[in-house]
Amino acid sequence: MKESNQKIKVYNINEDELLDRFGIERKKIDDFQLLCLPENFLEATSREELYATEDSDNLCKSFSKAGLKSANTSDLNLNPRNQYAVRKSFDVLWLGVVWVVSNVTWELTKVVLKRVVQDFVVDFLEKQKQKQNPVTSSVSFSPEAKITLILRKDDETAAFEYFDEAEEMLPSLDKKVEEFFSNGNKGAEPEALSDTIR
Asked: pLDDT digits over 79-93, tens only?
């Protein structure tokens, strides 16, 4: 089993700069409760560089089925070349960037994320069992998840990046999100906001 070393990077972002960079009108995102965005949304400099993942698209469908008004890259015209990152590994869940536009949806967002992660872990364990000799082997590592959450509090917007064990994703993120909403991180530099949960 891998050593527990879950890392979450938290840093402030400029919403207006992001929206301007990709030509997204604010009124368009305000029509939704959640945005499921390409995983390189915060790093890309143009729409042409953006790419989606199948896991992110499936997550958006799960949000919609739960009654959350969700938009994906196609709804926002953010994948004009229909580029998808092809993932070869079966042990990482690539959830992309999830922008929680309406904070009142955070509790339901967590419920959906929990179900998606649980299904992924169960599927991973089943695949591992099929590959191994049940008498001599056991699952030796845990599947991972990668997600970036964007949340807003008053005039502050923060990104929460997580890439580590899938089963630790929600407890770790929930703790950081709770701190953000209760204390806030206003004015802090990105390095000061980076944290390691052990």
From this structure: 666 777 777 678 999
